[in-house]
């Protein structure tokens, strides 16, 4: 006999979106721990990899539910884009950590730690904003988080450009190539976080 869920599907969508946002924060925290305390690297990378898999699972659940649902809490295109954008943030964090492992780089510098902190702050804004999707009364304050995420993305752009300037002063071309890929992955994580904010803003403006 098929198991019948009594939880409305709209609530499940919100639960999964919030789970994806929480996983973003955990992954960003794991990256910050990695770059701030450059010890036990394989174990810390393994934790990030597990969190990346967890993010994939949440995304798959959201997309599967979209295919099964006739009614969604807001535009299904926005739900799909939100799920993929949150997943992309985690994927780019994982990519940055993967490059650090693959290239066997030395201890991360201040720019890497700065970018990791910005990623974490952006993820925390997403996790604070996500519950406000549940009620129309929360949509206006949702925009405040979007503004802050956009500010953080601009800050990340500045840190990224400064990091490249400093990097190209290096004479070791191998290190330039390695760290440039790491910087690009971290900056891309902040870009995808801004994509999340753009979806939030669109939902708020359409439904407020």
UniProtKB/TrEMBL annotation:
Q: Which Pfam families match?
A: PhoU_div
What are the boundaries of the signal sequence? none
Q: Which InterPro entries match?
A: PhoU-like_sf, Put_Phosphate_transp_reg, UPF0111_domain
- Indicate the family of this protein: Belongs to the UPF0111 family.
The name this protein goes by in its record:
Phosphate transport regulator
Please give the organism: Dehalogenimonas alkenigignens
């Amino acid at each position: 006999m098929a198991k019948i869920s009594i939880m409305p599907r709209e609530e499940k969508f919100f639960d999964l979106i919030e789970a994806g946002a929480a996983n973003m924060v955990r992954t960003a925290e794991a990256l910050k721990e990695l770059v701030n305390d450059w010890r036990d690297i394989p174990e810390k990378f393994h934790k990030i990899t597990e969190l990346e898999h967890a993010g994939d699972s949440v995304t798959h659940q959201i997309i599967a539910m979209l295919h099964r649902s006739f009614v969604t809490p807001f535009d299904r295109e926005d739900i799909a884009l939100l799920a993929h954008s949150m997943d992309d943030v985690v994927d780019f964090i994982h990519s940055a950590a993967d490059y650090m492992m693959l290239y066997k780089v030395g201890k991360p510098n201040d720019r890497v730690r700065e970018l990791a902190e910005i990623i974490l702050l952006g993820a925390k804004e997403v996790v604070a904003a996500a519950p406000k999707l549940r009620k129309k009364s929360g949509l206006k304050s949702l925009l405040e988080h979007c503004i802050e995420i956009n500010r953080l993305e601009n800050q990340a752009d500045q840190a990224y450009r400064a990091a490249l300037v400093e990097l190209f002063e290096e004479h070791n071309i191998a290190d330039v190539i390695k760290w440039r890929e790491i910087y690009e992955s971290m900056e891309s994580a902040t870009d995808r976080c801004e994509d999340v904010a753009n979806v939030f803003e669109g939902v708020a403006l359409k439904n407020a």
